[in-house]
């Protein structure tokens, strides 16, 4: 990876991708962050990855780094986000689980009930994005899975369109982390977007997951960017920090995202290995701030 001279200076202290990050006992963001981020990337983060931080404390810390939104927060956490001026960048709370989703008809009634209740709440709170999942394949071929997802999603999209809420299905790898997951390739998700043909349905392109299941990240982002409404990061292999000890060239990927004109969120969803988790997050923000 390449960084400008100012970043190289600050990263001498952090040793990007190195073990000494974990020795930083008193993290001061001013020591590691430039005075201003470039503004080309809207940085978000997933709270669940940073175990040990209450949502309240987490909000205080991530704002110092330049984070604008927190992903995967439901209604119970929205008041805390608002208190700290942070966006609920990808709401959750309507899904059943990662494995039980729109790909199986038997879950449709429950999902429709859940999303019918949640979509207006998201809109009333002033938020825009609500996550959904395909669930597992359980022996289905792609065509059956597509048709099932289409049938279920068609029941909630008029509500999403009415309230101005974007429903986003996450692309997850089925090789390592989510065995048997149905929507595990860009091609599947893009085809679903085309068939559904709703301005309020997009894909959450998880860069880590798609590196595992399909690679060719920059080409796919460039070719299909109009179907991607949100991005997640993590280092591969391991789903840890974004330093130079993992294989994804995040600055290049971020430049490709910026080149598409994307104005949504890139949210960090890596699990820090290092003791000072906020230093790891600051590192990830710097690496991706192109």
Automatic annotation (TrEMBL):
InterPro entries: Sugar_Epim/Isomerase, Xyl_isomerase-like_sf, Xyl_isomerase-like_TIM-brl. Keywords: Isomerase. Pfam families: AP_endonuc_2. It comes from the Bacteria. Gene3D superfamilies: Divalent-metal-dependent TIM barrel enzymes. Residues 80-273 form the Xylose isomerase-like TIM barrel domain. This is TIM barrel protein. It comes from Algoriphagus pacificus. The lineage of its organism: Bacteria, Pseudomonadati, Bacteroidota, Cytophagia, Cytophagales.
């Amino acid at each position: 990876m390449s960084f400008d001279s100012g970043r190289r200076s600050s990263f001498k202290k952090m040793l990007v991708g190195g073990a000494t990050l974990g020795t930083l006992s008193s993290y001061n963001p001013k020591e590691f962050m430039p005075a201003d981020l470039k503004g080309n990337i809207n940085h978000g983060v997933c709270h669940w990855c940073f175990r040990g931080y209450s949502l309240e404390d987490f909000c205080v810390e991530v704002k110092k780094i330049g984070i604008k939104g927190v992903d995967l927060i439901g209604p119970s956490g929205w008041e805390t986000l608002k208190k700290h001026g942070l966006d609920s960048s990808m709401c959750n709370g309507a899904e059943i689980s990662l494995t039980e989703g729109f790909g199986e008809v038997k879950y449709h009634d429950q999902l429709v009930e859940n999303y019918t209740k949640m979509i207006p709440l998201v809109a009333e709170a002033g938020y825009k994005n609500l996550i959904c999942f395909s669930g597992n394949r359980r022996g289905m071929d792609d065509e059956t899975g597509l048709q099932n997802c289409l049938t279920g999603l068609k029941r909630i999209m008029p509500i999403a369109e009415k309230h101005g809420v974007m429903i986003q299905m996450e692309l997850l790898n089925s090789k390592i982390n989510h065995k048997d997951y149905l929507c595990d390739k860009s091609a599947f998700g893009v085809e679903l977007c085309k068939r559904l043909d709703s301005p309020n349905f997009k894909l959450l392109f998880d860069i880590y997951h798609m590196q595992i299941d399909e690679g060719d990240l920059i080409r796919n982002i460039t070719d299909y960017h109009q179907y991607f409404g949100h991005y997640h990061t993590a280092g591969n292999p391991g789903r840890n920090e974004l330093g130079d000890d993992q294989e994804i060239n995040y600055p290049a990927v971020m430049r490709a995202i910026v080149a598409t004109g994307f104005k949504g969120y890139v949210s960090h969803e890596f699990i820090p290995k290092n003791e000072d988790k906020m230093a790891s997050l600051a590192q990830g923000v710097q690496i991706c701030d192109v």
